[in-house]
Amino acid sequence: MRVAAIFAAFAFLGATAAADAKSDVVSLTKDTFSKFVQEKKLSLIEFFAPGCGHWYFAALAPAYEVAATELKDKIPIAKVDCTVETEICEQLAVPGYPTLKVFRDGKPSDYNGARKADSIVSYMKKQALPAVSVLTADKVEEFASSDRVVVIGFFPSLEGADFAAFNNVANQHRDDFLFGATEDDAAATANAISAPGIVLFKKFDEGKNVFSGKFEAEAIVDFVKENSVPLMDEIGPETYGDYVERGLPIAYLFYSNDEERTTYGAEVEPVAAEFKGKVSFVYIDANKFGGHGNNLNLKSEWPAFAVQEAKKNLKYPYDQSKKITKDTDSTFVKSVVDGTLEPSLKSAPVPESNDGPVAVVVGSTFEQIVLDTTKDVFIELYDPWCGHCKKLAPIWDELGEKFKGSNVIIAKMDATENDLPASSPYRIEGFPTLKLYKANSNEIVDYDGDRTLISLIDFVKKNGVKRNFNQCPYVLYLGSKDSANNTSAHSQGSVNMKTEVLLNL
Fold first, then answer.
1. CA distances from 68 to 27, 116, 158, 203 (A)
2. Which of 265, 276, 274, 266 is CA-nearest to residue 230?
3. Is there a contact between 24 and 69 (Cβ–Cβ < 8 Å)?
4. Which of the 8 DSSP states describes residue 470?
């Protein structure tokens, strides 16, 4: 997938020169930037670097052009080449490429929408409107169909506690949805609503939902979140984050062709309706994103079904030897929701021998070895294909030799073949990840220093609990040249022990 993204990026670059001549995206320079953002009440600006191979660049560039054309003469869309206009990008502390920022009256804020053309258009339209648009009866229908999801409140008066709760929700979620309100009796009558009332209009599933809870902010938010997502929709890199932020378990139906999508979708969709508001159900194209199946401990055999609690990194793969049916699927999802199903833990086989200087940890032995409170455990979580991990490997082995026989365990785990336990308070963000689990408390200390032997030893010395180095086969003396000869205090009580003096640390 990375290779495809890179080729797509270069293909786009080849077409850039021709596209610029008719582009509706304004190219800004240091001579035009300040005037542009000050004169335009609202604008969206992309900060990019030509040649960026990130898949976002390949996907965003054409989508950005489409959005600019659709918003032409309404909301200006612009771009800044950060390889040329370095001063602008440095002043704004642009963190990476491409970055999108919304400018309102010259002041920037982060763009928090998806990077698709329709999402960019929808997001910027919301930015151009007040948090709540006040509507007359003749404008309600038009407003209700102006975006994929629109929330309209019908009130006897735009004052009082009910409207205040609605207005509060609108201000919190103005980036996500369009909110409108009317006090026109004719509007309520036309929509068969008794004021106060709320209707969520949407361009999918049943078309609209009517609020039936108490007029309290939390209840209104729950109503909007539950009904603003399709019963089942396609998931991909650009929407995955939205599903994670909902905070619900995600149920995936992997398919490899249209027939599988239709046949097994018919079995799963009734289950999605049964657990609406409790689990998010999605379709996922295995031809494009089959690798995610491996993340969920599925074999690359389709169709397949699995549930994930992303924020907790819990995985529940459905038995692939069984057929996916409405009844079995419902029972499976219920066991996840009820908490009666144990999450799947990917684990390599336990090593037959594990008495080397570096303890080999697998998923099933993580808690036994790493959470041993009688010892400090310094563990490397690695990817065997990672260049940085390969470079660290001999240093890590040497570190293990230094602490062999002590109350400090130097350990490693292949994080591509083994899962962290469900109790883990963190997720792996990159490789190698180095963490010290302190004895007694299992307090975790992250290591982010130089990956040199001396720095790693010094880290353990400063942060470990079991720091009695006299019990090690090495007496580690960290000091200056002047004090290097005075090792008696450090070696007292040691018998037949080799002394290693590390100078000028």
1. 12, 12, 35, 23
2. 276
3. yes
4. G
- Do 256 and 302 form a contact (C-beta atoms < 8 A)? yes
Helices then strands, each counted (H, E), the chain: 18, 22
pTM score of the predicted model: 0.64
Whole-number Å distance between alpha carbons of 41 and 128 = 9
At 479, the amino acid letter reads G
| In contact, 169 and 221? CB cutoff 8 Å | yes
Q: Is beta strand 178-182 parallel, antiparallel or unpaired with respect to 197-202?
A: unpaired
- pLDDT tens, residue by residue, 201-239: 999 999 999 999 999 999 999 999 999 999 999 998 878
Q: How far is CA 391 from CA 6, 232, 398, 447, 451, in A?
A: 26, 45, 13, 17, 9
pLDDT, residue 176, reads 87
**What are the b/e assignments for 449-472, b being 16+ CB within 10 Å?**
eebebeebbbbbeeebbbbebeeb
CB atoms near residue 446 (< 10 Å):
10
What crossing angle do the helices spanning 117-128 and 55-70 adopt, rounded to 10°? 50
Residue labelled with tokens 């099933």: 364
Residue entry with tokens 């149920």: 251
State the Cα–Cα distance between residues 165 and 170, nearest whole angstrom. Answer: 9
Name beta bridge partners: 118: none
Cβ atoms < 10 Å from Cβ of 495: 5
CB burial of 340-353 (b: ≥16 within 10 Å; e: otherwise) equals ebebbbbbbeeeee
**What is the tens place of the pLDDT at every residue in 48-72?**
988 654 445 567 889 999 999 999 9
The answer to whether 474 and 402 are in contact (CB under 8 A) is yes
Nearest to 123 by CA among 77, 175, 165: 175
3-state SS, residue 48: strand
Phi, psi dihedral angles at 405 (to 5 degrees): 85, 0
Rounded Cα–Cα distance for residues 337 and 353 (Å):
39
Q: Is 24 helix (H, G, I), strand (E, B) or coil?
A: coil
**CA distance linking residue 132 with residue 169, whole number of Å:** 10
**How far, in Å, CA of 65 to CA of 77, rounded?**
9
CA atoms of 115 and 8, how far apart (whole Å): 16
Strands (E), 107-249: 107-110, 133-134, 149-154, 178-182, 197-202, 208-210, 232-234
Compute the distance between CA of residue 283 and CA of residue 340 in angstroms, rounded to an integer: 25
**Ramachandran angles phi, psi of 65, nearest 5°:** -65, -45
